[in-house]
């Protein structure tokens, strides 16, 4: 029985392993980005700075 199942397991297990690794890496990146954005917003709030946005850019000339 294992002789019939082993080739399929050997083919699918590396793929599953890579998917798990990719999930953990992406989850960590997204959580770090979320925490950084939260920290920047808190810092701006505590220092009285206005949030930076592209629509509020006063250095662009208007026509």
Automatic annotation (TrEMBL):
Record protein name field: Lysyl-tRNA synthetase
Segments of this protein annotated with the region Disordered: 42-63
Transmembrane region(s): 6-26
Key word Membrane present: yes
Superkingdom of this protein's organism: Bacteria
UniProt keyword annotations, A-Z: Membrane, Transmembrane, Transmembrane helix
């Amino acid at each position: 029985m294992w002789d019939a199942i082993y080739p399929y397991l050997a083919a699918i297990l590396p793929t599953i392993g890579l998917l798990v690794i990719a999930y953990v890496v992406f989850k960590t990146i997204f959580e770090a980005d979320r925490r950084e954005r939260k920290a920047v917003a808190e810092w701006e709030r505590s220092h009285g700075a206005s949030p930076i946005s592209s629509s509020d850019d006063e250095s662009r000339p208007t026509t």
